[in-house]
């Protein structure tokens, strides 16, 4: 019950890794801040196999690719999955470093 109450009160933050694709490192680096500011930190990893070269930076957007295959859509999918599990949140924040910042910037532009 205590864990559920903590989840309910936490703000959700997606952290987008850089070109090194080291999502685990980013999550580890956010642990202290997450505890201090009561954040649920989610660090999706976008592999080079799925999004080679700079395709990650561009959110997986390619000419002729359907929008549902873009990396951008995974952020909403992950968040919606949490909502379906019963978590009640109005939204989330998005942070990115380097290539992840490019991803975050384009995500916001394509979501507008």
What does this protein structure show overall?
This protein has helices spanning 2-9, 23-37, 72-84, 99-111; strands spanning 11-16, 39-42, 93-96. By secondary structure, the protein is an alpha/beta fold. Helix 2 links the parallel strand 1 (11-16) and strand 2 (39-42). The longest helix has 15 residues, at 23-37.
What would the keywords be for this entry?
12% strand; 3 strands; 112 residues; globular; three-stranded parallel sheet; alpha/beta; single chain
Protein structure class:
alpha/beta
Our count of helices gives 4
In the sheet with the most strands, the strands line up as: 2-1-3
- Largest beta sheet, briefly? 3 strands, parallel
User: What general outline do the C-alpha atoms trace?
Assistant: globular
* Percent helix range: 40-55%
Distance between the termini: 37 Å
Radius of gyration: 14 Å
Mean pLDDT comes to: 91
Beta-strand portion reads 5-15%
Quick overview of this protein structure:
With 112 residues, the protein is an alpha/beta fold. It has helices at residues 2-9, 23-37, 72-84, 99-111, and strands at 11-16, 39-42, 93-96.
Task: Please outline the helices and strands.
Blueprint lengths: L1 H8 L1 E6 L6 H15 L1 E4 L29 H13 L8 E4 L2 H13 L1
Parallel strand pairs: 1-2, 1-3
